[in-house]
Amino acid sequence: GGLSKDRGLFKMTEAMKKINNAILILIGRFENIKDKKAINNNYKIVYLGEMSFPETLKETAKCDIGLNLLQNVPAYVNSGENTTKIFEYMANQLPVISSNFPNLKKIIEKNKCGLCVNSGNQDEIAKAINFLIKNKKAAVQFGKNGRNAVLKKYNWKNEEKKLLNIYEQLNK
Length: 172
Description:
7 strands, 14% strand, 3-stranded parallel β-sheet, alpha/beta, globular
């Protein structure tokens, strides 16, 4: 995915200053090269670069928490089931920390797979990360819940049925 201010890059990096025992792993393409230079000197951030989808999933599986901190901009405020990243985290059994936008909040809270925060507030982000670091049992349960939700509901087999129904309706 893209790494940018609108996708929460700087809120994540600011939150990391308030977390003692964690590093932020970034994978993807910087939308602005100046952003890459701005985070390059932070020892709490590891940038792995752009990767193929299978490589990204492999690296994601090594992580403890998945962050989806889209900012409150028109392109993202209505995000929900079109936000692939949260489902990738859920499939990898990671607890998710996500923006508290209504559609995202509905997915996260309904499936009890993580925490929703004000993505514009680095203190709130840091508090959620620290909570999951300190409460391993809750983090593991969130991860299991997310994985179960992907296996039962958020998967291509179910989406295929919906898509075929739409085609059938359009064909009438």
